Amino acid sequence: MMGYNFNEKPLLIFWETTKACGLKCEHCRASAILEALPDEMNYDESIDFLSHIKEFGKPYPIVILTGGDMLRKRRINDIMKYLKDAEIPFSVSPAVTEMLTDERIKSFLEFGVSSVSISLDGMKDVHEKVRGVPGVFDDTVRVVEKLIKEGIPMQINTVVMRSTVNDLPKVLKLILDKSVKVWEVFFLIKTGRGIDREDLSPEEYEDVNKYLLYATGYGIRIRTVESPIFRRITLQSGSTGRIEGGPLYQKLVSETEKIIGKKPSAIAKSVIPTRDGYGIIFVGHNGDVYPSGFLPYKVGNVKNQSIVDIYRKSELLRKIRDPDNLVGKCGFCEYRSVCGGSRARAFAYSSDPFGTDPSCSYMPKSVVSA
C-alpha cells in the first residue's frame, strides 16, 4: 500500500477501550465483564496514547475502537471528538445492546467515524447462542439496516467455529440482501473465552478459506482475522480463479448457490500481507500492547512509552515481522512473506509465537520435495 512500510507503522491500531460489555459471548477474546476494571486507562492517559499516533506520520494508522463494548468507555464522545479534531481516522466496533440507540448511530456521522463493525455470527438460534442474549439477532439486523439507511460505511464481523460454520451461506445472503460491502471473518483462537471444542480441523480451515474466496465473487470485500492462509489460497487460485475444495467447501458452495440462486463471478485477487505485529498492533484496556488481540505476548505499555517507540523498537515485534525467523513448516513455506501463518494460533498451541500455525494443511514445496 502506498505510504505504508509495515516495519515502521501499522495500518490498523486496535484499541480495547474497555472490558465492560453487556453481552456474554462464549468465544470472547476479552473475557468481557459488566463493569470496567480499575486499571483501565483514564481519559488523560487515553488522549496521551492517541496523541502519539500522529508521530507515525501521514497517512495515519486507522484506530479501531473496540472492547468489550466501546460505548461503555468513559468519555467516549470526548475521545471520538479528539480523534476527529486530530484528523486521525477511526472506526468503531460497538456491541448491539440497549446503548446502541438510533441517536448514537447518528452521532457516529457527527464524529466522522470511518466505518462501523457489527457482529453477526449466524441466523437467530446460532447468533443468540454465541452472543448469550435473547433477542440480539433481531436487534442486530435492525442496527445494520439503520446504519445502511444513514449512509454510514459498515461491515459485518463473523466468527468461524464449529457451531457457526454451517450458517456462513445464510450470513452471506443476508449481507448481500442488506447491501453490506465488507465481511470480516474471525477464526477462533484459544484466548479469553475461546473454546477448544469449537475449533475446526486443518482441512476444514482450508475449505472455509476457499469458500470465502469463492464468496468474493458475489461482489463483497472479505477480510480474514487470524487466518492469513486466505492470502495463500488467493494466490494459489492464480489467473484462472479456479478453486478446488473438499467436502465442507462443496457443502457451503452448494447451499450458497441454492439460497442465492446464482453463481458468483470473478473472485478477488489482491492481498495485503498484514499479520500479528506486522501492520497490526493491539492496545489493551490498561495500556498493555500486544502484536494482536489474540496474541497475549506483552511488548510494552502506552502509559510509559509511545505507541510509535513500542511498534518500531520492540525486539519481539521486529523479529516477528521477518518471515525468516519463523520455524517449523511456516519457516519453510514459500508463502511465508504473504501469509506467515497465524502467530496467535501458533502461540496458543505451542507457546511459541514463531512456530507452525496448526490450522494450515498446506505442505510447502520444499518439504514435499525433500
UniProtKB/TrEMBL annotation:
SUPFAM superfamilies: Radical SAM enzymes. This is Cofactor biosynthesis protein. Signal peptide: none annotated. Keywords: 4Fe-4S, Iron, Iron-sulfur, Metal-binding, S-adenosyl-L-methionine. Its cofactor is [4Fe-4S] cluster. Gene3D superfamilies: Aldolase class I. GO terms for molecular function: 4 iron, 4 sulfur cluster binding; catalytic activity; metal ion binding. Pfam families: Radical_SAM (PF04055), SPASM (PF13186). InterPro entries: 4Fe4S-binding_SPASM_dom, Aldolase_TIM, PqqE-like, Radical_SAM_PqqE_MftC-like, rSAM, rSAM_sf. Residues 7-223 form the Radical SAM core domain.
